[in-house]
Amino acid sequence: MDALALVLIFGTRGLVPLLIFRWPFWGGLLSIAADGFDTIIQDVLGAEPLRGHYHTADKLFDTYYLAIEAWVAFLWDDQLARWTAVVLFAWRAAGVVFFEFTEARATLLVTPNIFENFFLFVAGLRTADPAWRVRTPERLLGIVLLVGAPKVLQEYAMHYRAFQTWHFVRDEIILFWKV
Q: Does the residue 154 lie in any domain?
């Protein structure tokens, strides 16, 4: 089962993000789904193919798909959106590197992954209307606050409080419906 889980995890996490190049918004959403898929696969198959190295592999795969999103954002012609995305990605990447060396969980709270939500927000609007642009610094600030607040709460729950989202969904929501 470990070999099957490994193939499914590496295949999904490695290939799905490539969709971001063609369909930034939908590829980004599918990459988030693939991120959750690996834990589900391990639970369903009762496998642990990475034997204690899951966290490192997960962070590498996350950085891989976020780097693809950052590359796509770097090609946007909207300068406010482009440079905001680049700065948000760099801030998160620096935080992840610092965390990997120090294992200080609060680091991920201080460097939340606002980039991902910002990218999806802009890519989603650009999918609906290719002419959409951020246009003003005030609009940019509003967008960053809008997409950043839920991400900071998620980072607090997942990385600072070590709350496992999938386990909550599995144990409290899915099992609730089975009763």
A: yes
